[in-house]
Amino acid sequence: MSWLNQRVDDRLIHGQVVVAWGSALRPARLYVVDDQVAASPWERDLLVSAAPDAEVRVLTVAEAAAAWEAEQDAPGGAMLVLRDLRTARALVESGATVPAFTLGGLHYAPGKAKIAEYVYLDDADREDARALLRRGVKLEVQDVPATRPQGLMALDPTVAP
Amino acid sequence: MSRIPALLVTHADLGAALLRAAQQVYGPVMDVDFLSNSELSRADLESAIRERVSGWTHGGLVLTDFPGGSCQQCGLLAARGNAEILVVTGVNLPGLLDYLHNREHYPVAELAERLVTRARDSVRMQQTRPE
């Protein structure tokens, strides 16, 4: 078993991750990659308590990049969650050979344009997406397993590298 | 004892619907607000909750829908460090009604405990026997 899914979601661990994806994929481990949360024991504990059916590991980008290869061969599946495309790009540029990211929740903020019901991007997001696509990383938009994944480039052709 | 306020933080329109349902049973309700997590990031939901509870000078209850969800987590993030604001998750109509009937009679922690007990005890499985 290896990596099951890598999700970009600004809510990190929440209902869709624990209930929908957790039930569909049954990951043994749930990696949260976030430098800010990794630095806060209180927030780490909060995320650990949110997913009682999986072992939650909260890592910095550098720690996650270092752990990526070893997890490929670990027993049981793993899912990874990070909050934005900047972190996704940083993870890949730090050496993690991530084949694909699922954009599951990037909510509205001033300056961001709607790409899908739950995905809003600004110019910086698009530049991060382009950098990932240039490296051959697949980017799809999908909130829950019951919906059909859509390629990001089909929804927003301006991200084409 | 002053009336203890509450904020329902839920997925979709559940909080608004729960409050409407409670009003059908209880009557007009003051000092209970609702907030949906729809289209809000983790940071924005935490900020919205923090703003709504900022006027609670004597504490209150943040009532959320299910454990591990963004509503519960952001409620805890917003209430962090304030012992007079309690987060109760898994709230249902019987729990909400118990809160409404008792929010002027109990301190916030006892009120929350009552609500949890009533909400939990109201989930029942019943089976009728063939006649």
Ordered list of secondary-structure elements with their pairings:
The complex is a heterodimer of chains A (161) and B (131).
Chain A: E1 3-9, H1 15-25, E2 29-33, H2 35-38, H3 41-50, E3 55-59, H4 61-72, E4 78-82, H5 85-93, E5 100-105, E6 113-116, E7 119-121, H6 123-134, E8 138-141, E9 150-151, H7 152-155
Parallel strand pairs in A: 1-4, 1-5, 2-3, 2-4, 5-8
Antiparallel strand pairs in A: 6-7, 8-9
Helix pairs in contact in A: 4-5, 5-6
Chain B: E1 6-10, H1 14-26, E2 32-36, H2 42-53, E3 60-64, H3 70-79, E4 85-89, H4 93-102, H5 108-121
Parallel strand pairs in B: 1-2, 1-3, 3-4
Helix pairs in contact in B: 1-4, 2-3, 4-5
What does this 3D model show about the protein?
The complex is a heterodimer of chains A (161) and B (131). In chain A, a hairpin with an 8-residue loop joins strand 8 (138-141) and strand 9. The model of chain A has no long low-confidence stretch (mean pLDDT 96). In chain A, the strands form 2 sheets. Chain A has a 7-stranded mixed β-sheet with strand order 3-2-4-1-5-8-9, sandwiched between helices. In chain A, strands 6-7 form a two-stranded antiparallel ribbon. Chain A is of the alpha/beta class. Chain A has helices spanning 15-25, 35-38, 41-50, 61-72, 85-93, 123-134, 152-155, and strands at 3-9, 29-33, 55-59, 78-82, 100-105, 113-116, 119-121, 138-141, 150-151. Chain A is built from 7 helices and 9 strands. In chain A, helix 4 crosses helix 5 and helix 5 packs parallel to helix 6 (123-134). In chain A, 39% of the residues lie in helices and 25% in strands. With 131 residues, chain B is α/β, with parallel strands linked by helices. Helix content of chain B is 45%, strand content 15%. In chain B, helix 2 (42-53) crosses helix 3 (70-79). The termini of chain B are far apart. The interface between A and B is medium-sized, with 23 and 18 residues.
